[in-house]
Amino acid sequence: MSESVKKVVLAYSGGLDTSIILKWLQDTYGCEVITFTADIGQGEEVEPARAKAQALGVERIFIEDLREEFARDYVFPMFRANALYEGEYLLGTSIARPLIAKRLVEIAEETGADAISHGATGKGNDQVRFELGAYALKPDIRVIAPWREWDLNSREKLLAYAERHGIPIEQKRGSRSPYSMDANLLHISYEGGILEDPWQEPEESMWRWTTAPEQAPGDPTYIELEYRKGDIVAVDGESMTPAGVMETLNRIGGENGIGRADIVENRYVGMKSRGCYETPAGTIMLKAHRAIESITLDREVAHLKDELMPRYATLIYNGYWWSPERKMLQEMIDASQSTVNGTVRLKLYKGNVVVAGRKSDSDSLFDTTIATFEDDAGAYDQQDAEGFIKLNALRLRIAARLRQRR
Fold this sequence. Notes:
- By secondary structure, the protein is an alpha/beta fold.
- The chain folds into three domains: 2-66 and 95-176, 3-Layer(aba) Sandwich (Rossmann fold), CATH 3.40.50.620; 181-297 and 340-359, Argininosuccinate synthetase, chain A, domain 2, CATH 3.90.1260; 368-405.
- It has twelve helices and 14 strands.
- Helix 2 (48-55) links the parallel strand 2 (32-39) and strand 3 (61-65).
- The mean pLDDT is 94.
C-alpha cells in the first residue's frame, strides 16, 4: 500500500481529526503530505493551520481565501434555481464540497501528487461529494479515505492516537462542543449530541449565528436587494460582491433571528440524519429571488423551473455538481435569468422574512392595466373567458356524460 503513494494532498482544517489523519497518512503510507486549507467563510481564522501542519513536518502548505469564488461560482448559481432539498435544506454543506474537490485536484496536479485525502466518515454524504467531484475532474486520481481504512473508530481511540504521537489537543474534553459542526458563508450546521434524538429540542446555547426570534428586535428591519440577471448586486443601494452580499445578509438576518432550521433528511448513503442549520443569508436570498422572479418570469418558465428544482437540488445534495446533467440544467436556469432584474424590499421581523414590495422598471410582466379590478379600458375582454373555460372543460363534460349514461 505504501509503495504506490509517494505524495498526497490532504484537505486540512487544522483540527484534531485532520491532524490525526495527517500523521496517519505519513505513518501508514510513508508519503509526503501536502495540506490544503480553504477559507470559504467559516468565520474562524485559518492561518493557525499553517503552524499546526509545520509542527507535523509538512513542508508544502496551501491556505487559500476562496470566499468570493465560493459565493460567485457556486452559491449564486444555485440560488438562481431556488434550490431546496426535501423542501427545507438550503444545501449549505453540499455546495461547498465541489469547490474543495476542485482545488484538491488542481493542487495535486500542480505538485505532482498521485493521491488526495479527506476526513469525511464512511457514514456521511461528504465522502461521496468529495470523491464524485474529484473523479469527474481527474478520473485517474487516487482517493485515500482514512475513515474507511483505519481502526480509529471512536473518539477515545482518536485521542489516544493523538497523545501517542504528540498531536496537540486544544480543548479539554469537558469544554468541547458536543456537536459536529460545519460552517461557510452560506450556513453553519450542527449534528450529533442530543440532536441524535429527533424528539429532543436543540439547546438555545447551541446556536452561534442567530439571535433567538423571541429575543430579536421589537421593530422590523427593512432592506432592499437589487437584482441583475438573477443575482443580488446591491444591498440598500450599496454595490457589493457576492461574498459581501452574503456577509451582510448573514449579519442582518442573524440579528433578526432569521435562518434557523431543524431537519431530518435522507442521506444519499441510505440513512436518515437529523441536523440543525443556521442559514440567515440563504433564507433571505431564497425569499427575495422568488419575489423578483414572480414579476419577471413567464408563467410556464417559472413553473418549469419549479418542476426541475427538486432534481437540481438532489444532484447537488448527492455530489453531482460536476455532472453533465447538472451543467445542462444550469445553462437552462441561467438563460431564464436574463430578465430577472429589479428590486425587492423585505421586512425582517423575529425570524420572519416578509416580502414588502418588488419592482422591475425594465422587465416586469405585471401589467396593471390588465390586472386591475377597476375599469381596464378594454385591455382585457372578460367575455373571452367563456370560450376558454368551455374548451378546457370539454374532457370533463365528456367524462360526466359517459358516467350519466352508465
